[in-house]
């Protein structure tokens, strides 16, 4: 690779990390203010304008807390768990294309950190990794509550991963590729359509499963405060807890980005944006493709922002499931539904292929 | 005998109900409405405490004090009625003889409290001491901000109780 490619790679990593990690404080603030608005309260509004610096103050507090580890914890796994928790979703984020390509100095740079043609498999592998921090944290911290949380978390994630995978497989049938870039290209092309139009049930199943995968309400049984204190991270304090907290939000961003990419057109321009691209590019004299790439990034950003809003919205609407209800939903409803939906997609894809 | 309305909570769900999605969307519409009420209209039930305060009733029973006359002498005559009536046994009085030069105003009082301690951590704020007092000496103010940094500070001595209390109007 020549120099421009290296610089571009580092810039891409910087942009993705900045957008993802930088939005977490805002998301935490929004989660707290949003819950307050829904419940007729005020929420944090003292630190900074509108309380926006509250998360910063919290992080500062976490830094000054004692780095405590329980006496009989197995140290290596105890410290490893929060690291894996953050690494897994960040690793999966490298696969998400956040724009088509830009042209710099006559070179085409794809806006995707890792250009792997089996991107979906890679993402599924990293999503599977998200079970490990929960099990490790629960087991290594030598606490009954955290073991309960770990057991709940692992069984929940494994159960919902099946329906999630089947929903994804049904879309892979339609796209005929594992490359996320070409998936988005197909969805934004004239012949194609958004995945959720073609396969609404699959999109719904996938959406529900992302909630379960990221341990968000109504599926936050691994950390059910009322029953098992805080679940798998009972024994974690200071920055280790903050890492788990950060990892939860990064995982949510990753899941939203994947949902947007596979089912909601990914970085393809939102309606109305194509006019804006032409107008900005002609008014400023900037190259059309680079302006388009910027607006594609903005489109994906807005889509992810909407899904993040839904995460918060659902959290403060629905109560937590009981564990048997969770398993019933996963195995008796979503799994058969995903199978039937797979059959429907097979029929649809064959029909479309015949008619061409 | 009229008909008694009962709700059968064990009824089978209809197909539409068993889908749950309709109910979930209805619920989410309610929270969305509330969200915009809070976000746009700033509708809230919170009292922004240090700036805004809840308006308590005039009869609210808060922190204790002992009323004083113009000479800053306490009205208490150490009669022990409040200590006797106190159900929480939080009042401790040591009585003493009162010097003549302390009786400049009003009726002559023969006794005075040498020490008058109220353990606010034991007190249940029933107000019986106030009702028992023949001299209207011990009273409960409307102040409810009584937090202290040390446990010892919660045991009020005579000097603390004799402080001048503002905003008593309306309390009989």
What is the H/E string of chain A? HHHEEHHHHHHHHHHH
CATH topology of the largest domain in chain B: Alpha-Beta Plaits
Low-confidence stretches of chain A: none
How many strands in all of chain A? 2
Radius of gyration of chain A: 21 Å
CA distance, first residue to last residue of chain A: 41 Å
Q: What helical percentage do the residues of chain A reach?
A: 55-70%
Major beta-sheet overview of chain B: 3 strands, antiparallel
Q: Which band does the percent of strand residues of chain B land in? A: 5-15%
Q: Could you report the average pLDDT of chain A, rounded to the nearest whole number?
A: 84
Computed CA radius of gyration of chain B, to the nearest angstrom: 28 Å
Overall description:
The complex is a heterodimer of chains A (356) and B (172). Chain A is mainly alpha-helical and 356 residues long. Chain A has one domain (68-355). Helices cover 70% and strands 2% of the residues of chain A. Chain A contains 14 helices and 2 strands; from the N terminus they run H-H-H-E-E-H-H-H-H-H-H-H-H-H-H-H. In chain A, helix 5 (131-140) runs antiparallel to helix 6 (144-175). Chain A is globular. Chain B has 2 domains: 11-45; 64-161, Alpha-Beta Plaits (2-Layer Sandwich). In chain B, the strands form 2 sheets. In chain B, strands 2-3-5 form a 3-stranded antiparallel β-sheet. A two-stranded antiparallel sheet of chain B has the order 1-4. Chain B is elongated and about 90 Å long. Chain B starts with 14 loop residues before the first helix and ends in an 11-residue tail after the last helix. At the A-B interface, helix 1 of A face helix 2 of B.
